[in-house]
Amino acid sequence: MTEIISQNEQIGAAIGTIPSGLFIVTSQQNGSTGTMLASWVQQAGFNPPSVTFVVGKGRPIESFLTVGSPVVINVAEKGQGKIIGHFAKGFAPDVDPFDGVDTATAPSGQLYLTEAIAYLDATITSSLDAGDHTIILATINAGDRLREGEPAIHTRKNGFKY
Asked: What is the pLDDT of residue 46?
């Protein structure tokens, strides 16, 4: 049993060294807003331009992420601890996550964060079950690099938890 725990700790430590970015994913629908701080976002295709991102099952934003739904992926900048912390805490359904945050309107009508170094305005095209998470594929319809800057990245001490 000790070997299994030790091996799992070793695997977790090894997985945790995989660097990932920090992104704020948002979707507004029917007068409500779903948000999450995401670390697993990756370009998935050139034509059409697309990305994948991963959401933990049971997160409130999960109900917003259905095929055809709009989504904005904001790329956080290194050193933006305040905005990252703001979105990391999560929000009750009746709380406006954009309160006190500077935003602008993307071509789809969705809001993006003006403090981000870039944003992607996308539409959910499919999803795939991945155990305790769901992999979401989104086609990018618009986006912009808002300014130069270094994307925020992080690693984890344990690859089995956030």
From this structure: 96
